[in-house]
Amino acid sequence: MTDRMDLKGQNVDGVQAPGAGATASGGPDESADLGRLLLVDDDERFLTRLSRAMAKRGFEVSTATSVEDGIKIADETDPDYALVDLRLEDGNGLEVVQQIREHRPECRVVVLTGYGNITTAVAAVKAGAVDYLSKPADADQIASALLAQGEDLPEPPDNPMSADRVRWEHIQRVYEQCDRNVSETARRLRMHRRTLQRILSKYAPRD
């Protein structure tokens, strides 16, 4: 069986996260009980695939696609863990983070963002998140961040994306958010239009 791929062609399932219910052969242990996990992301295809991958690692998974549903389901399920995308169609994911922290402070919350910068990190931590991950992130990275003990940072991935690939992914994301408008994308990225066109015409760099 081949690994599932996310919308950007990244491997969502990945390999078993360290310590996350691995079997003797290294594969995911579906009988493991790691606790209740709430996933909040408005990308339904990605959410479905990630939900399956995390369930295979031993989490009892609930999902939501909006701020409103995220808050509602968090209240209903009392999650032990939560992964929340910052950019949701009906608002900011930090609203969900704050609600979870107020009603279940022991829940480990990780924020998922397409814009990994210091400002985002500070806002996420102030809201109560224990860590944040930049998109695209696979199930291994997410599980490691959720299961990290104490103040320790999760182990870096064995095969992180190259700097060129991260840059390409960011450009593609902004391009899609601008409805594939090259001129608007170039303006927002502060790039020359022809430079952007050359980048968009190429295949993704190899990791």
Describe the protein in words.
The N terminus is likely disordered. The radius of gyration is 17 Å and the shape is globular. The longest helix is centred in the last third of the chain and has 15 residues. The protein has 207 residues and is of the alpha/beta class. It starts with 34 loop residues before the first strand and ends in a 7-residue tail after the last helix.
Which characteristics define this entry?
207 residues; globular; single chain; 7 strands; 5-stranded parallel β-sheet; 41% helix; 8 helices; alpha/beta
Give unreliable regions as ranges.
1-29
Gap between N and C termini, in Å? 22 Å
Helix segment count?
Answer: 8
**β-strand amount:** 5-15%
Short description:
This protein is α/β, with parallel strands linked by helices and 207 residues long. The chain has helices at 44-56, 67-77, 94-103, 118-127, 139-147, 163-177, 182-189, 193-200; strands at residues 35-40, 59-64, 81-85, 87-88, 91-92, 108-113, 131-134. 41% of the residues lie in helices and 15% in strands.
